Amino acid sequence: MGSGNETIKEGNAYLFDAKTNQIIKTESIVDKQLIFTSLNEGNYTLLITCEEFEEFEQKVFLNKNLTLKIELTKINFTELNEIVVKGNKKTFTNSNGNIKVDIANSIFKAIPNPIDLLSKLPGIQISGDQENISIIGRGNPLIYIDNQRVGINDLNTLSVEDIKTLEIIKNPSSKYEAEGRAVILITRKLSKKDKFETTISEVASVKKRFNNYLGINSNFKKNKTEIKTNFNYNQLNPWESAANNLEIPNDNITSNFIAESYSKRRQFILGGGLYHQINENDYLSFNLSGKIQKDNDENTTNTFHDQNNVQNKIETLNNNDENRNFLNSFVNYNKKIKPLDINLFTGFQFSNFNQKSNSIIQNNYDNTQFDLTQNRNQKFNVDVFSGRTDLEKTFKNEMKWEVGALYLSAEANTDFEVLDFISNNNENSNYNFKEKNISGYTQLSGKIKKINYSLGLRTENTSIKGKYANDTFLLIDKDYTNFFPKIQLDIPIDSTKTISFNYAKSISRPNYSSTSQISIYTNPYLVYSRNINLNPTITDEISGTFQYKDKSVKLNFYRSKDPVNFAFSYDSTVNLITFNSINYTKESGIDLEFTLPFKHNIWSSTNSFNFIVNKIEDKSAVFNESKPYLYYYSNHIFELPKEFNFSITGWGFTERKEGIFKRNSLFIMNLTLSKTLLKNLDCTVSFNDVFRNMNFNEDLTINNIASKGIYYTDTREISLSIRYKFGKIKDSNYQERDIDQNSNRIR
User: What is the pTM of this model?
Assistant: First the structure.
């Protein structure tokens, strides 16, 4: 009740732990009442906020059921020209080893693209070609933008300006597809005020060559409808290099090469979306995004090849023109069925990826002259359609039941043509791949006394068919059904300490690009190709986590069947070495992870340490030894006077010996300084990979081929980012509450 006996219709109440100041529960005012249930004995702080009333705060000691009568004081309004609010919102938040990052209000918002953004976060690794994302100890994660699962191409069409938060979930529930042991969940911004706002961003980046990123993001909101658009134009000049020393003793072959690639890349990224809040619980959203990319590559490979004491030095030129176009669209609808108190979510998504490349290859043997060797024309197209529906029912005893289903259909086609000017053995093929996946899940969660539990079961049926156009019979014909149970128990010791136990079974399927026949000519003796015969990887794991305040330690055991890694093979009939992905027999390991955030005055720090023993085995490879190694990540942010922010991040590995593979140690340091000028102008200077250490060594022996490889990256960078925001913001008559909390719906 208000001080003048006014009825308070809307408001929120927050219950904090008095010792840690962490939020325990949040409730809304309903019929002039607030009810908190299932609380432990202890000291709490109650905070109530209501429109037009002063904030109310009271200390509460709870040792029995308690009823409070609260009177709020109405605010006397004074018209102000401007209000400036400053807060100390955490950039990183840790809960049971899951890391949530506030992108919109942190130094990370100046990073030009989502892939570079991910590479700056704890535990996330990006491959040298920026086509693969992995999480330390968890493998390849699922990527979600709000409610929809996306791939790396979808991620590349997203503007960093549009990202509100990013969360790394290491124990995803059964609501997520079973394909993945971790989830990267991206939540986009939504406005709470009527406005028209535009942000223009410009990033000038110097690596080996100059790179430029230009972006324009606009946002229009009126009452319950919000429209967003983005346009980005990037002029990039990436560089990469790889080298390898290969030995095949049984065939008396030594083959060493170093390859270098310079590219001129032009990217157009476009996107638009509409969000309409129908009422307090129901909404409809639509999003369309795309990327148009053109590459002109100049690839040079220098090879020394010794076979039966016959030696050759070959210089290979590969001029490659490539177009990559991507389109993604989705529609989401959320409905609260009030008579049954059930929440219904339905979403549909369609994606298309199209790739065309033309390569002209020349070889120069022993410094004589360049001769035209091959002309390669390759086309790859994949269409993916998916639809999902989820139902959620919460009962009065705090038990929640969730059930859902998903249908996915994918079709990929590859046209592969090679004109060989040396042997005149031309090759022409067309390969078609189709996959269907039907899955369903059910999950029950709740609380028994002090123990929170979540029990889930997901089943997935997958059908795969693949054949060449000229063949009568199918080359690939697979149909399998798998069950994926998940169990989680959270046992609170007191208000600051919690122990959690998890068991999960998951699957990792080959990506659609592996179904293509596209190959890359390296030199006359080596080709990189796809493998259409890959099997999915099945992983069982069990883990335990101890959380104390905002710090945690986690112990994880895992075992995988048919893990995927790269390998070499040699075909003596055509004298050709092939480098591609294969299924190894098994992989197992232990991961002990410490997450240790820290804050003192202007200094906040997030630290992660993983002590890992990982063992990969296969009968076709030489098993050496498996030894413990350390992954470490440490980020420090300093809030300096005059609105300067300085960030220093260091991460790396010690030497990794993982049975078959031996990989090098790494230490990477990144520096960032940012400042806001004239309220709406953000300037950021970054210096990445300060010591130029981002080079990857990998040694293995498989199929009687000994390989010592190294991959050089172009990550050392000095960049200047400028973001200017302008527009008009005004109060909205529409008061929204918990708009698009989709991320919580699918945990």
Answer: 0.83
